Amino acid sequence: MPQLTNPILPGFNPDPSILRVGEDYYIATSTFEWYPGVQIHHSRDLANWELVTRPLNRKSQLDMRGDPDSCGVWAPCLTHDGEKFWLVYTDVKRKDGSFKDAHNYIVWADSIEGPWSDPIYANSSGFDPSLFHDDDGRKYFVNMIWDHRVRPLLFAGIALQEFDPGAGKLVGPIKNIYQGTDLKLVEGPHLYKRNGYYYLLTAEGGTAYDHACTFARSRHIEGPYETHPDKHILTAKDAPLAALQRAGHGDLVETPEGKTYLVHLAGRPTTQERRCVLGRETSIQEAYWGEDDWLYVKNGPVPSLHVEVPGLRDEAKYWAERRYTFENGLPKDFQWLRTPETERIFSTESGKLRLFGRESIGSWFEQALVARRQTHFSYDAETLVDFQARDERTMAGLTAYYSRYNFFYLAVTAHADGQRELLLMSSEMSWPDGKLTFPADPVQIPDNGKVRLALSIRGRQLQFFYALEGRDLQPIGPVLDASLLSDECGGHQAHGSFTGAFVGMAAHDLNGTASPADFDYFIYAPRHDPSDRYEIDVLR
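Above: the chain sequence. Below: its structure as tokens.
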């Protein structure tokens, strides 16, 4: 079979839940504060994946205004019961401190493209919910339990409760079926049934560098569950030089030919400080069932960078330049932050992307920032903006963005006297500081006319550029450290920042008058960097 180089979903695509229906594979991944909620990719060969839908796309399903950074949609689970698709997810409203406000919901659809139903509220006892369809027709809901008392564990175990789809609610007693191993922090549960056993796959160790997939089984769905003899079937926690780090939070799928694969999240640190700019990505591992009825990862437990899968990936497509225009609406690669009321932040009716300036960059409520994932370690980006800034509180431009405290922003704005200027802004400090700095002096520009804005990232080196109409691009400001746009620098430590780097267009009006900014196009152009070990592996 062809050999693939991980990851299969590069860039911010964590917490994968995989499903096969006939010849079709689907993976659902977390989107956190980015709207619409949940990404679902499709494949026929486990190698080539296409984004087909983001199902949580209206206010009745998801409204994340006010959700802090790295809250919102956590760990969706996508299943099929032979008749319809089911999707369960968490909307986290608070994650820092002793308490978690994590609300779990269930939606369903006859086809993967939807329409998806309005949600059924399930519970709020913890996060990472999953739905299991037993062979007797009954359905069970599992999620991790949060205990703010830490008595004895903060991550207190995996809760099981029956779900009655006719009644539209969880019913019957709640049972704590598994408390994990000494690695602790048990979460991300998925249930399976095989050869008379119920199998429970969980994540442990937190989502940073001690992450792991832990496996357990029982003859009864309510337990007790016996832990795998190796405890962790996948982890890089004892292999600090492995190419794929932070490996954990997985799900299983079987091919029509009977081969088993494990998909899981992993990060690829690229600096001495172990920073994962592309966030937590989705990788795949071949697995097999032993004669003892336990699952093992081939060449595991350390994740393999190269894995045999049925298909051969189209590398030319991965490296192709993307030139986006807006005549047919917002291209599917783009998302925005938190709000379901899109008409208040953008429009494409004119054939251009018009952003309506709202709250400041980093607002948890309503800001006009439309961006796509960084999916390559090196790339160029460019846009053309037409914006009539009135004063220093109106701005629009190009941003490389991770979170409210970690971003770089080259904006067309104005001085207090109304003179337009280009201003380079940077926020590189950890929570709770987030202090804005200005790496370069402002550049005065004419009061009218479009401005080309561009940036170039080569590994950890970030350079901004600009050009007035009819002129060539020229650099503005110093070379900046792009590795700050990473989980490890995202305002929290790696255990608390969960997304990845984005690049896109933004507009802000701190006067509250919704000043419009028009963007003609957006270019994202991957670039090869011979010094990057992952690109070398892909190209050989």
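Residues 536-540 have pLDDT under 50 and may be disordered.
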